[in-house]
Write a structure and sequence with these properties.
The chain has 26 helices and 15 strands. The protein is mostly helical. The radius of gyration is 27 Å and the shape is elongated. InterPro entries: DUF3160, UCP014897_arc.
């Protein structure tokens, strides 16, 4: 039976750091939900509880101790004190109840110019293109290139210009998602620079020194293990060390490992792709070490990225199958000793272990828990093997230790370790065996994220043989009973599994769901994810961000505004969600495991309209809960500076107000003078979220989300310039108006793995030769 993690040790240590109290959690099979304040889940029901579109209400989620089963083995995902049931920071997730009668006023499609009260103003300014006008008439809305600045990268800028010109404003969900991304990304980079960098340096420095000390007294295979640990931590410190001569960040690479360290650093610096690691003797993807995301903003962040990537990817393997050496099993034995020595040193030094816990706790709250074994599993295994006796790492005890660790969870996502060294994979059993072959110790392993898990299950194994050509690539995928022969996933896969029927439609329409076994694997994943509770979805900020997107992806029925009931609107929301998902992957690219002002006197508006809020209160509600969870959780972790705290509180206030206004719109109520003033001043209110540097505010971001080693290509997801959306909405008095606002754009394309894109390179591409926009944008864009 698969072992449950050492809940007692991990929950105690993590919870002690976070809250100063003691908690012992059970296995997730026994309790998977949050107790008490697990939140509520919005559903559309009528008075007798059956499904309908007449009401938007909410019910308490049934967290009755069930845990999700199937391929996504929740007991196998390293749920420490951060996520284990009742003792989680996720208790900060509070989803308020909604009770809204859906009766927004309707109009007929196609629209006629004569039906639109302010058509003249908008047509002269924004609708000079006949195709855009036809799309507006057909769907009740249209997305066009930004007429103020086609290369705009600040989503708030359009509100200011529209306000100054006296145009009616449409407040979009895109804006709020981007603002959350800005706060998330900025708060993460702040804590990384101000605290996590030094924590990692102190850990690496102490463990380097202890490895040198152990090397001087050890013998046999243990001596070789200490030598390699010396090299391992010397590489990490070399990557982390700033170029400037700061006394705090000085160390010497010992002469007995200098050659290996220099060889690893040369491969990391070249970042050309897969090569044999001089220290670990298996193939590593060195293209992953190019700093991307916000890590290009400073030298300190660049160095932190490389060092953390080293700790997240390099594994000390239990088995020798992926190791290319004369005696692979001996090498695996040495690597197991390496991991055991590091874990022992942490266990014997409470100060060091506390630093490891602190670093892990903060990053796990943002992104999630490691997909690989780490120090606590090895501590527990050593306790079983050695008990209270001294730890003598000889051939017999290492064999016992490896047998004990074999019972622990295997990774759920193949991260590319040893790529090219394994045999052809054609079955599910062989794929699981490959994951088993990658089992081992990672000092600060990359994190389990659900979308990479989806990708790993939907895109199947392939052959190394050159047997033809697919999409211009010099290889052919082989059908199998595991995954499919598509090779590359799509963002549509993730959106479909989050509940988008429109994504399912486009996967079929684009012939991206016809691969052998795709339907089978998709059905298995859909069954898993559709059974998740609110607690399951809000175990950390990464999962909760995805959960916040779900209300945007549904099919809006009667009772919603006319423009929202079209297929084209679902396509627009699909783009919005993909753009936000891209920002999520961008912000967490280091940690995610890749498969392979109030006025003193209000003006009187009277019968005058000022604009419209995209009426998606269920979405604003989830984003509000996520924002609260982020601010409160980081506050409890003491990982939130005052400026970031203020910005999260401002975003909470904005979301609370948008929920209130959008509820009135859906219930066909007149807006108050205060509501109208809030929309009128919306651009100025966004300045309350200022203080973030210009780079972080830009919408032009890119993230590689999947690697295909045979083709040496990666799948890139990019967000582009800010577009303008024009929406026709109807007031309770029967008048139809046009309002405009900013929306995000999204791209998906392939790129050579040796040229993984940074934001800076992506912006050059956008300016010079941008990729094609996705096919579904043609239904609403002009």
């Amino acid at each position: 039976m698969m072992k449950c993690l050492t809940r007692t040790a991990i929950a105690y240590l993590t919870f002690l750091i976070l809250f100063g109290s003691i908690f012992t959690a059970g296995c997730l099979e026994q309790s998977s939900g949050l107790s008490g304040e697990s939140g509520t889940e919005e559903k559309e029901v009528n008075n007798n509880g059956s499904s309908s579109t007449g009401y938007l209400t909410s019910e308490e989620t049934d967290n009755n101790g069930k845990s999700s089963t199937g391929y996504l083995k929740t007991e196998a995902v390293n749920l420490s004190g951060l996520e284990a049931g009742n003792s989680s920071l996720a208790v900060n997730y509070r989803l308020d109840a909604l009770d809204i009668e859906l009766k927004a006023p309707q109009y007929n499609l196609p629209l006629k110019e004569s039906e639109i009260t302010n058509y003249g103003d908008f047509s002269d300014k924004f609708l000079t293109d006949e195709a855009a006008l036809e799309k507006l008439k057909e769907n009740g809305f249209v997305v066009i290139s930004n007429p103020y600045n086609p290369e705009e990268e600040d989503i708030t800028a359009m509100y200011d210009i529209l306000g100054r010109e006296g145009q009616l404003i449409f407040i979009s969900s895109d804006t709020l998602l981007h603002l959350y991304h800005v706060q998330f990304d900025d708060s993460m980079s702040q804590v990384e620079e101000s605290e996590l960098f030094d924590l990692l340096w102190e850990l690496d420095e102490a463990l380097l020194n202890s490895s040198i000390e152990e090397y001087n007294s050890a013998s046999g295979e243990e001596k070789e293990a200490t030598r390699r640990n010396t090299a391992y931590f010397a590489v990490a410190l070399s990557l982390l060390r700033p170029d400037e001569n700061q006394i705090k960040y000085q160390f010497e690479v010992p002469a007995f490992v200098r050659e290996d360290v220099d060889a690893e650093l040369a491969l990391i610096e070249a970042h050309e792709g897969f090569a044999l690691s001089p220290i670990f003797f298996y193939k590593e993807d060195y293209s992953q070490y190019v700093p991307r995301g916000h890590y290009t903003h400073s030298e300190k962040l660049q160095n932190y990225f490389r060092a953390f990537m080293w700790h997240g990817r390099m594994s000390m393997l239990l088995k020798g199958k992926l190791i290319q050496a004369e005696d692979p099993e001996k090498e695996a034995r040495i690597q197991t000793i390496q991991a055991s020595l590091i874990s022992s040193r942490l266990k014997d030094n409470p100060d060091l272990l506390q630093k490891w816990d602190r670093l892990y706790a903060i990053t796990a709250f943002y992104v999630g828990v490691s997909d690989d074994l780490g120090p606590y599993e090895y501590m527990e295994a050593m306790d079983t093997v050695f008990g209270n006796e001294s730890r003598d790492f000889n051939t017999t005890t290492i064999r016992e230790l490896k047998v004990e660790l074999a019972g622990y969870r295997s990774p759920e996502i193949y991260g590319g370790t040893g790529s090219g060294t394994h045999e052809l994979i054609l079955t599910a059993e062989q794929a699981d065996e490959l994951l088993e072959d990658t089992k081992g110790f990672r000092f600060m392993g990359q994190r389990f994220i659900p979308d990479s898990y989806m990708f790993s299950r939907l895109t199947g194994p392939y052959t190394n043989e050159y047997t033809g050509n697919q999409e211009g690539l010099p290889f052919t995928y082989i059908s199998s009973s595991y995954g499919n022969n598509r090779g590359f996933p799509r963002g549509l896969d993730t959106m479909a599994l989050l509940g988008s029927e429109r994504a399912v439609y486009w996967l079929d329409e684009l012939n991206d769901s016809s691969y052998e076994n795709y339907s089978l694997r998709y059905g298995e994943l859909d069954s898993e994810f559709s059974n998740f509770s609110t607690a399951d979805w809000n175990r950390n900020l990464y999962w909760s961000w995805l959960y916040s997107l779900q209300p945007l992806l549904k099919d809006y029925g009667s009772g919603y505004p006319t423009f929202m009931q079209t297929d084209a609107w679902q396509d627009k929301e699909l783009t919005t969600s993909l753009a936000s998902w891209t920002e999520l992957r961008h912000d967490t690219i280091l940690y995610s495991k890749q498969n392979y002002v109030i006025a003193t006197e209000l003006p009187i508006f009277g019968n005058r309209t000022v604009g419209y809020v995209e009426p998606v209160p269920a979405f604003y509600n989830r984003l509000l809960a996520l924002t609260r969870m982020t601010g409160d959780g980081l506050g409890e972790l003491d990982a939130l500076d005052e400026d970031s705290k203020r910005r999260f509180e401002s975003l909470e206030s904005i979301l609370e107000r948008l929920i209130d206004i959008s509820e009135k719109e859906l219930e066909n109520e007149e807006l108050t003078e205060e509501d109208k003033f809030y929309i009128f001043e919306f651009g100025e209110r966004l300045e309350m979220l200022g203080g973030v540097d210009e780079e972080t505010r830009k919408t032009t971001l890119v993230a590689d989300v999947h690697t295909e080693p045979n083709s040496e290509l990666v799948l890139e997801e990019g967000t582009g310039y800010v577009d303008m959306i024009i929406v026709a909405y109807k007031l309770p008095d029967g008048r139809v108006f046009l309002a405009a606002g900013p929306v995000m754009s999204h791209y998906e394309f392939k790129q050579p793995m040796s040229e993984r894109l940074t934001d800076e390179k992506w912006r050059e591409m956008l300016e010079e030769e941008p990729p094609e926009k996705p096919e579904w944008t043609s239904t609403y864009g002009a």
